[in-house]
Amino acid sequence: MSSTPLPGIGVRYDLTTREQRPLSVVAHRDGSRTLSAYRKDDPDACALSVRLTSGEAEALIDALMPAHHSPSLLSTTELGLVAERVELSAASHWNGRVLGETRMRTETGVSIVAVLRRAEAIPSPGPDFRLAGGDTLIVIGTREGVEAAAAILGRE
């Protein structure tokens, strides 16, 4: 990766992918970003250029680097397990109900290892733990199990 100062504009970052596809990002002084991809057969011909707000750029970073940046993805191991944060909405069917009613481990095979509520972390909540809208559940399991758990918890 190389960088080039652009006086009055910001900084341009250039990268050539393993497939020899030139990419660039211009970091504008106002916080926005312009992402550009160039044609492989003609690196001077821009095939795509997208201007992103700072919020959109942050969302793209989360998508590109989930293991490091994403607020929802905590880790992935070579064992095929993932740990994710799943937020319980106020409109959730489970708001006000106890954790055991979800039958989470039986239905999905995932474990709920903690619940984050406001500034508090509740480790290893038991089946009698009462869920509340706004809770963030830390779930660990296979990718499929975690997706199934998120679907169950998202039920309204």
* CATH superfamily label of the largest domain: Regulator of K+ conductance, C-terminal domain
Principal-axes shape call: elongated
List the secondary-structure elements in sequence, H or E.
Answer: EEEEEHHEEHEEEH
Strand order of the largest sheet: 1-2-3-4-5
In DSSP terms, counting alpha (H) and pi (I) runs of 4 or more, how many helices? 4
Secondary structure: number of strands: 10
Number of domains: 2
Q: What does the largest sheet look like?
A: 5 strands, antiparallel
Tell me the strand percentage band. Answer: 35-45%
Uncertain stretches of 5 or more adjacent residues: none
Mean pLDDT: 86
Estimated radius of gyration: 21 Å
User: What separation lies between the terminal Cα atoms?
Assistant: 46 Å
CATH fold-type name of the largest domain = Alpha-Beta Plaits
What is the name of the CATH architecture of the largest domain? Answer: 2-Layer Sandwich
Helix and strand content put the structural class at alpha+beta
Which CATH class of the largest domain is shown?
Alpha Beta
**What is the helix content?**
10-25%
